[in-house]
Specification:
By secondary structure, the chain is of the alpha/beta class. The protein contains 11 helices and 9 strands. Strands 1, 2, 3, 4, 5, 6, 7, 8 and 9 form a 9-stranded mixed beta sheet that branches. It is globular. Keywords: Cell inner membrane, Cell membrane, Membrane, Transferase.
Length: 287
């Protein structure tokens, strides 16, 4: 039976890159979803490990769409894959994370009568590289974010492994920006800036794997891409404050491990934007 408006087709897109140890668990978690109307599209974006061989074995068993390409980066890969996907709802998903079985069903049900919600997300449980829980998940209530909430960081944000987009919202803002390699924050800002809301369910919907190569551990990558993202909204009255707050936060985080980056962040902070984090960061990289 083809999907109806009550049972929309959800396109789950996994862009795989050097996650051979985790990719099978990621794919299998999509195949185990309780929601039936899913198409799975997997793209290997130039992996140098044995990811392709592992994915091909699963593809032969389950028949999902699988393509291999030279490395293009995540944003470009997502745009190209969305263009050939058929779903009205799009779920980009990390090749190192795991969906819980009811994830897609809960999000589809929530979105059914809420056309103003362009992105639906949920909470996460963190796991280690072996799949073991890292403490308990944060118990966070249902929250609905507009552009100001996201840009000013006024409410707890949306975990990337749980993002589900309306295709119409993605198309309205022109999709993902290949020039910004940290794609989640920018697309959330663009879609909420276009008038949609970002709603985050209280349910734990995915397991987020913490390991040595997580993007958030690359401080320079984070700094470069987040500041480029904020710069797209430089006409906002709070832009200087938003950038200063981010610089102070990253200064404190990287002061001990990357004092050169810390000094660069400090150089970009006007004296009147210094605070306790600034002083603590200075003390750390001077030791």
């Amino acid at each position: 039976m083809p999907p109806s408006s009550e049972t929309p087709l959800v396109s789950v897109i996994i862009a795989s890159y050097n996650h051979a140890s985790y990719i099978e668990a990621s794919i299998e978690s999509v195949l185990r979803q309780s929601y039936a109307h899913i198409e799975l599209l997997v793209v290997d974006d130039g992996s140098r490990d044995d990811s392709v061989e592992r994915i091909r074995r699963l593809q032969e068993q389950h028949g999902f769409d699988f393509r291999v390409q030279q490395n293009q980066g995540l944003s470009r890969t997502l745009n190209e894959t969305i263009a050939r996907a058929r779903g009205s709802l799009i779920a980009p998903f990390g090749s190192d994370d795991i969906m819980l079985p009811e994830r897609i069903a809960k999000q589809v049900a929530y979105l059914a009568d809420k056309p103003q919600v362009g992105i639906c997300a949920g909470n996460i449980q963190t796991i280690d590289e072996h799949g073991q829980p890292r403490g308990l998940p944060k118990v966070l209530p249902l929250r609905s974010l507009d552009f100001e909430d996201v840009f000013l960081d006024r409410k707890p944000g949306a975990p990337a492994p749980t993002l589900l987009f309306r295709r119409e919202a993605l198309e309205r803002v022109g999709g993902f920006d290949p020039q910004i390699r940290l794609e989640d924050l920018l697309i959330e800002l663009k879609i909420t800036h276009a008038g949609y809301r970002l709603d985050i369910l209280p349910d734990v919907l995915a397991l987020y794997r913490v390991h040595a190569t997580n993007t958030y551990k690359n401080y320079r990558f984070m700094v470069d891409n987040v500041l480029k993202t904020y710069a797209q909204f430089a006409d906002h009255p709070a832009y200087p404050e938003v950038c200063a707050r981010f610089r102070n936060s990253m200064l404190l985080k990287c002061a001990a491990s990357d004092p050169q980056l810390a000094r660069e962040l400090l150089a970009g902070l006007p004296l009147h934007k210094w605070n306790r984090k600034t002083l603590r960061g200075i003390l750390r990289f001077m030791r």
